[in-house]
Structures are given as structure tokens and as C-alpha cells.
């Protein structure tokens, strides 16, 4: 048996394209990205053999809303699986030290204003707003599906 030679090369990452979040509905996910903050780049539904293959699931049907940050560099994909049913993690409101991707951070103009707006739409503050040296004011908010939204206000 002949083994292929070990190829060593450097993988170059071109950019972080987007972060995705799944929920039972796309509506509550707007807590993370109110239209006044992020713009809708596009909305679509996807299904078919290619979607099944990349998800390693059968009969996948997904609705997607792609949101773009005001600076034009970041995107957040909001997804709703119509099929198959979502699998919930336990506990749904897992703490920040839970293994896996648990949060997405946004730099905002005002942490206080953003917290107030998100609370008015049903999000919950985790802990409290805290200041890191003379550089940032920071906090965690919990939104739909237990996703943590971290907020940072630059003080410099």
C-alpha cells in the first residue's frame, strides 16, 4: 500500500464571513440586531441535496435572514430550521463558561442605551454592566435560544 506523502502547507484565512444563530423563529432574533442597527442583506429559504450533505441531515428546510453590521465588515446569519426539528441544548440558558460557541459580541455606541432597548424587547441582562480599566464598558445579555450577546462600549 502506498501512502500519499504528508503535505505541509499554511492555510490562509481570508476573512471571518459571518456567525450563524438558530432559533425556532426569526422574529425574536431581531433582539440581537434591530433593523436600526444592522441592515438586512438578504432573506431566503434553502433545501435540497446539497443542504442535506453539508448538514449531514435529511430533508433539511431552512429559512435564513442575513444581517450586515453598520461598518459593512460583519454579518450575522439568523436561521430557522423548518425541518428537521431543532435540538435543544441543556440547560437552554447555559452560563458563559459552557463549552462551545456561546456568544457574539457587538461594539456599540452606548451600552446603557443598547441594554435598555434590548430589555424592552425581552432580552435579559446577565450579571451587570462592568468597566474594564479605562478602556471598555461591557456586559452580557441573554436572548432567544439562550444565545449570549456581549456588548462593548469603547471609552477611548
Quick synopsis:
The protein has helices at residues 49-55, 111-120, and strands at 19-23, 39-47, 61-68, 75-83, 103-107, 124-132, 136-142, 148-154. The protein has 156 residues and is mostly beta strands. The longest helix is centred in the last third of the chain and has 10 residues, at 111-120.
Account of the protein in words:
The chain is mostly beta strands and 156 residues long. The protein has two domains: 17-86, 2,3-Dihydroxybiphenyl 1,2-Dioxygenase, domain 1 (Roll); 88-156, Roll (2,3-Dihydroxybiphenyl 1,2-Dioxygenase, domain 1), CATH 3.10.180.10. The chain contains two helices and eight strands. Strands 1-4-3-2 form a four-stranded mixed sheet, covered by helices on one side. The protein has a four-stranded mixed sheet with strand order 5-8-7-6, covered by helices on one side. The chain is globular and about 50 Å long. The protein starts with 18 loop residues before the first strand and ends with a strand. The mean pLDDT is 82.
Describe the secondary-structure layout.
Layout: E1 19-23, E2 39-47, H1 49-55, E3 61-68, E4 75-83, E5 103-107, H2 111-120, E6 124-132, E7 136-142, E8 148-154
Parallel strand pairs: 1-4, 5-8
Antiparallel strand pairs: 2-3, 3-4, 6-7, 7-8
* The CATH fourth-level homologous superfamily of the largest domain: 2,3-Dihydroxybiphenyl 1,2-Dioxygenase, domain 1
User: Which fold name fills CATH's third level, the topology of the largest domain?
Assistant: 2,3-Dihydroxybiphenyl 1,2-Dioxygenase, domain 1
Largest sheet: 4 strands, mixed
Q: What structural class results from the helix and strand content?
A: mainly beta
Extract low-pLDDT stretches.
Answer: none
- Which percent range fits the helix content? 10-25%
CATH architecture of the largest domain: Roll
In which order are the strands of the major sheet placed?
Answer: 1-4-3-2
Amino acid at each position: 500500500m502506498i501512502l500519499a506523502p504528508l503535505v505541509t502547507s499554511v492555510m490562509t484565512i481570508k476573512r471571518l464571513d459571518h456567525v450563524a444563530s438558530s432559533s425556532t423563529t426569526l422574529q425574536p432574533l431581531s433582539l440581537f440586531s434591530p433593523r436600526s442597527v444592522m441592515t438586512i442583506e438578504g432573506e431566503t429559504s434553502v433545501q435540497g441535496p446539497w443542504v442535506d450533505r453539508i448538514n449531514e441531515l435529511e430533508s433539511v428546510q431552512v429559512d435564513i435572514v442575513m444581517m450586515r453590521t453598520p461598518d459593512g465588515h460583519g454579518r450575522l446569519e439568523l436561521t430557522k430550521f423548518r425541518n428537521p426539528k431543532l435540538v435543544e441544548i441543556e440547560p437552554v440558558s447555559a452560563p458563559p463558561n459552557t463549552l462551545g460557541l456561546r456568544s457574539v459580541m457587538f461594539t456599540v455606541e452606548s451600552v446603557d442605551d443598547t441594554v435598555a432597548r434590548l430589555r424592552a424587547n425581552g432580552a435579559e441582562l446577565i450579571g451587570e454592566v462592568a468597566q474594564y480599566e479605562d478602556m471598555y464598558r461591557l456586559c452580557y445579555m441573554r436572548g432567544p435560544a439562550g444565545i449570549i450577546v456581549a456588548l462593548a462600549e469603547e471609552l477611548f
